[in-house]
Amino acid sequence: MEQARDFLIDRLGECTYPSPMQGTGFIDDRAHILLHSDLDTIRTYLDAGEEPPRFEAAGPRERLYFNPARVACGIVTCGGLCPGINNVIRSIVLSLHHHYGVDEVYGFPYGFEGLEPRYGHRPVHLTPELVEHIHEMGGTILGSSRGHQEVGRMVDTLARLGMSVLFCIGGDGTQRGALAIDAEAKRRGLKLSVIGIPKTIDNDISFMQTTFGFETAVSEARLATSAAHAEALGARNGVGLVKLMGRESGFIAASTVLVDNQVNFCLIPEARFTLEGLLTALERRLAERNHAVIVVAEGAGQELLPATNECDASGNVKLGDIGVFLRGRICAHFKEIGMELNLKYIDPSYMIRSRQANPHDSAFCLLMGHNAVHAAMSGRTGMIVGYWNHEFTHVPIALAVRERKRIDTGGRVWSSVLAATGQGTEIV
Questions:
Q1: Helix 214-233 vs helix 359-377: angle between axes, to the nearest 10 degrees?
Q2: Residue 427 placed within a domain
């Protein structure tokens, strides 16, 4: 079980400067959010004489570590695109300016590449005027990249530019890079606050109830499943096959099915299925109802595809295209048995991830950015801004990247998906 010590947040030192923020309620450092909300689990810790694990509550502090008049901050955005990145950038810049009077804020182009001098990227001075309308656009105004950069050289750049804070917007790979930067800064005795803002459209960061962009992704994915259903209804033995994001975690696929319960089969990385079982179940479905909709996460069924040893720039194994594979196998099977089939294949992935954030995600991004700034100004480091039980929290990066969050196939979410689709276990 998790221990309370795993949730401790590093600090650069004592907070001695009064906060310039006005008209707000400050958060006491003793405020915490419990990890577990069920009484039996909490009793287990108490009966063992242990403190239940808990997150430090996020929010503005009355005393600061950094003198706002002498702070310079940097921002990087790394990894794939996700709705809301520009919203977070804007929120950080405006919070630093309006809440703390910090105007030295710089964006480093193309992720961690921007901290490596050999690429020749120049930092962008991020002013309130520059970021005023960026939340109305998808993508990231700073650009993004994947891949490892030499940690020592990145810290050299931050030290040379006199950076006090580095905000790292990205997924688990980005946060591992942030943790390495934090460790190197500590080794050198640099007073650098490294704050992560978790960005993963797959919603697969541990100890995070949800991540920004996820709700937008599900809303957009619903348009694809709705189209697939219309196409399936419009033809004899029509099948709509939709591939959605989800390398190792099927949250987008599962949530889309719950939002649009016209889907009949949901295939995710966490739940294995057999091709034979799927084809048999699909035959039965078409015989009974004349149409079907299948949603498959990109990381599902990889064991059915030829193995590959290729990796992308981030070190992730390149996935086989399960959507194209299923399209080909389904069509071939129905041709072989002489049964008419009309299959339409939809892959909306790049359209979804480059979308502007929806209203819910926009508000979420604003608060994520604010709480990242509050944490940095109070001297926290080596942490990400979390969200748990509808409260913003501080989470050590080491804890957040320890393992990937995945759907529990014995839990309520997956049980609800099975109930909604009616696919049962026959495709296993």
A1: 160
A2: no
Task: Please determine, for residue 308, whether its predicted confidence score (pLDDT) is greater than 90.
Answer: no
Domain that holds residue 23: 4-211+356-400
Using CA atoms, how far apart are residues 170 and 82, in angstroms rounded to an integer?
9
Other CB atoms within 10 Å distance of the CB of residue 149:
21
**Residues facing 267 on adjacent strands:** 296
Please check whether residue 198 lies inside any domain of the structure.
Answer: yes
Residues facing 243 on adjacent strands: 296
41 in a structural domain: yes
Task: Determine the angle formed by the axes of helices 359-377 and 85-100, rounding to 10 degrees.
Answer: 50
Residues 90 and 182 grouped into a single domain: yes
How many whole angstroms separate alpha carbon 384 and alpha carbon 392? Answer: 10
The residues annotated with a catalytic role in the active site are 202
Helices 275-289, 322-336: crossing angle, 10 deg rounding: 60
- Looking at the structure, tell me whether residues 108 and 30 fall in a common domain: yes
DSSP, collapsed to helix, strand or coil, labels residue 75 as strand
Does residue 428 belong to any structural domain of this protein? no
CATH of the domain at 341: 3.40.50.460
Q: What is the pLDDT of residues 233-255, one digit of tens each?
A: 999 999 999 999 999 999 999 99
Please state the pTM of the whole predicted model.
0.95
Instruction: Name the residue with tokens 């030192």.
Output: 13
